[in-house]
Amino acid sequence: MIEPLTDRFSDPVQGRIRDISLSGVYVEMPTEAVAKYTRLRLSVGTGEGNTGPTRNWQCYVVRTTDDGVGCMFDDSDPGNIDGLLEILRDLSVRRSRGPG
């Protein structure tokens, strides 16, 4: 879920992470009301039906496209960085196993 931290749009929207790194993320999402430097809160869970933890990050938009936004993380909480590393490790393991 993506929540605004400004008044540019008021309702949370759903998005899909397409690329992620320690410094930022690209999210496919509606971009009509999003401009550069819009502050957002990303809530990332493990997917539908899973009971894993939900992680939250604050970020700001550094790029917009027709399909989504590129965001830079704006959060120095070490616990949130640990959560990001955990997600990146899980993705790496899934990719190495292949489909199935």
UniProtKB/TrEMBL annotation:
<protein>
    <recommendedName>
        <fullName>PilZ domain-containing protein</fullName>
    </recommendedName>
</protein>
<feature type="domain" description="PilZ">
    <location>
        <begin position="12"/>
        <end position="87"/>
    </location>
</feature>
<dbReference type="InterPro" id="IPR009875">
    <property type="entry name" value="PilZ_domain"/>
</dbReference>
<dbReference type="GO" id="GO:0035438">
    <property type="term" value="F:cyclic-di-GMP binding"/>
</dbReference>
<dbReference type="Pfam" id="PF07238">
    <property type="entry name" value="PilZ"/>
</dbReference>
